[in-house]
Amino acid sequence: MESELGLRERKKIATKTALYEAAMRLSVENGYDTVTVEAIADAAGVSRRTFSNYFASKEEAMLYGDSVRLHALLDAVAARPAEESAWTALRGAVRSVLRDLQRQRRERDDNLDWLTCARVIRSHPALLSEQVATYASFERALATTVDARLSPDDRSVMRARVIAACFLAALRAGTQAWLDDDSGTPASQFIDQALVEAGLPFP
Taking phi first (over 0 means left), then psi (-120 to 50 degrees means alpha), and beta for anything else, what does residue 18 get? Predict the structure, then answer.
């Protein structure tokens, strides 16, 4: 039974990935506004009904990559040494995920690297709105992980939520600065600098 469920889950992930990549590829090639759910399903080789089983809209399909990366970040935080503080673990987890993204970018032979997809999302208000919703949902899960790393003296009703919210805000700020830059500087430098700034006391 476990083997069967594992196969089902892998097929589900493969289908969602195919739909996400089809949606992004069509947006890059033809423009986001021209892309329809039917076109995405056709490009992924599935039916319109199958699309609806996995995503409620084309915006949700196009944010699937963000969702995958955020959950990879959550796993990376959980894998950090238990003795690390919450903020140190978050910074270390980001570095790990970014290294994987850079490796994937080098290995891809198409135009669907993280930078291209991020620019597509930033160019369309509907996608930005969906991205905000994606981050808000993830923030709750991240706060739970952060709370587990807080000492009893540091823990409060709001502490973990504020740390998670500040972290994600810094992550977005660093990413946006990277997208605005054309010097070829790695995203990791912008994001780590944003996290350093977020960790400093406010004036």
Answer: alpha
125, 49, 135, 171: CA torsion to nearest 10: -80
Which tokens sit at 78? 């959980």
Q: What is the dihedral of CA 37, 42, 46, 47, to 10 degrees?
A: 60
* Cα–Cα distance for residue pair 176/117, rounded to 1 Å: 13
AA identity, residue 73:
L
Task: Spell out the residues 6+ positions from residue 167 whose beta carbon is closer than 8 angstroms to its own.
Answer: 87, 90, 142, 146, 195, 198
Name every residue whose Cβ is closer than 8 Å to that of residue 138 and which is 6 or more positions away in sequence. Answer: 67, 70, 71, 74, 168
| Helices 114-122, 159-180: crossing angle, 10 deg rounding | 100
Please, what are the averages of pLDDT over each run of 10 residues along the chain (203 residues)? 68 94 94 95 96 95 92 93 93 92 73 80 90 88 93 89 94 91 88 92 82
* DSSP secondary structure letters along 132-153: HHHHHHHHHHHHHHHHTTS-TT
SS3 191: helix
Q: What is the pTM of this model?
A: 0.83
Which amino acid appears at position 77 of this protein?
Answer: V
Q: Which two tokens stand for residue 164?
A: 């998670």
